[in-house]
Every structure is written in structure tokens, then in C-alpha cells.
Amino acid sequence: MDVNLLFKIAGIGIIVAVLHQILSKAGREDQAMMTTLAGMVIVLTIVIKEISQLFDTVRTVFDL
């Protein structure tokens, strides 16, 4: 696993948290929730791509 992946996920988390706080304080709770969900979808997409690469590597190593 690359350290850049962890920094990327942490950066997305920080940005989403800040946006959530700003939107919540402005009284836009629905947009704050949508921002949080969008951040989760982005992170899950990144993680799923990495898991797919892991399975491909395992399949290659064990000739499956």
C-alpha cells in the first residue's frame, strides 16, 4: 500500500469535515449531508479500486 493513498483519503476526510461544518453552521443541513455522502462515495471508490488490484495480484501470484 502506498502512503499517498492514506494521505489522499485523509485529505478528502478533512475537506469533507470542514465543508460539513460550514454548511451546518449556515443552516444547510441537507447539503451538508449530501457533501458527507459524496465524500464517502469517493473514498469507497478509491478503496474498491485498491481491493480490486489486491485480488488481481493474489490471483497472479497463485495462478488462479
Describe the structure.
The protein has two helices and no strands. It is an all-alpha fold and 64 residues long. The longest helix has 33 residues, at 29-61. It is elongated.
Largest pleated sheet = none
Average residue pLDDT:
94
User: Helical percent range?
Assistant: over 70%
**Radius of gyration over C-alpha positions, nearest whole angstrom:** 16 Å
Report the sheet-strand fraction.
under 5%
Note the run of SSEs as H and E: HH
What's the layout of helices and strands?
Layout: H1 3-25, H2 29-61
Helix pairs in contact: 1-2
Keywords:
mainly alpha, single chain, 0% strand
Outline of this structure?
With 64 residues, the chain is mainly alpha-helical.
